[in-house]
Design brief:
Layout (H helix, E strand, L loop, with lengths): L2 H4 L10 H6 L2 H4 L2 E4 L2 E4 L5 H18 L3 E4 L4 E4 L4 E3 L3 E5 L13 E7 L5 H15 L3 E6 L7 E8 L4 E9 L1 E4 L5 E4 L4
Parallel strand pairs: 7-8
Antiparallel strand pairs: 1-2, 3-6, 4-5, 6-7, 8-9, 9-10, 11-12
Length: 188
């Protein structure tokens, strides 16, 4: 069995930003590009998707007119080599809704919900990539054995382009400026 029988050729070659931008939405769905190479992730669980959707809805409601919160679209971290990540939740400037691709300077917060198989990527790799890209806030949500998710928050240090650890929340998350919301994860 050859690699081509398992996956198409474009998954074994470095992809440029121009090539990626010419692909259809169907080709881009469910993949990320890291250092020009396609990374395919398995479908998320229902619990994972529900958690991301509820968080995005709460953030969107709290954001006011200047910010939007959504799920499931690319953030272009760099053009060469191409790196596109698809965070579980993205809070971005409302005035950039029609600008493609979404760039780090459009983004306030990215959230990753950790799933089995994504632990190292979400805890180490993406943290570093988002920080180097200059995204101000990163949240990582762990689905704890107790059933109530834990939310780990990080704040960018612009001088070092690294994140400082913030608070850890369990059960209820109170969001303050620029948002004002309270999210009860116990209902998930």
């Amino acid at each position: 069995m050859t690699a081509e029988m398992v996956a198409p050729a474009w998954m074994h070659e470095q992809i440029t930003a121009e090539e990626y931008d010419s692909w259809s939405e169907e080709q881009c769905a469910g993949i990320e590009i890291v250092d020009g190479m396609v990374v395919v992730s398995p479908s998320a669980s229902k619990r994972h998707n529900r958690l991301a959707r509820l968080l995005a809805n709460a953030l969107d409601a709290a954001a006011g007119p200047d910010w939007n919160a959504d799920t499931d679209f690319d953030v272009r971290l760099q053009d060469v080599p191409l790196t596109n990540r698809r965070p579980d939740v993205i809070v971005y400037r409302a005035d950039t809704i029609d600008i493609t691709p979404t760039r780090p300077e459009h983004v306030l917060l990215v959230v990753e919900v950790v799933s089995p198989g994504s632990e190292t990527t979400d805890r180490i790799v993406k943290v570093d990539q988002y920080a180097k890209a200059g995204i101000g806030f990163y949240w990582r949500i762990e689905q704890a054995a107790t059933g109530t998710p834990l939310v780990y928050t990080y704040l960018l240090d612009p001088a070092t382009r690294t994140y400082r650890e913030g608070d850890v929340y369990a059960g209820t998350l109170k969001i303050t400026a620029p948002f004002a919301a309270e999210i009860d994860f116990g209902q998930i």
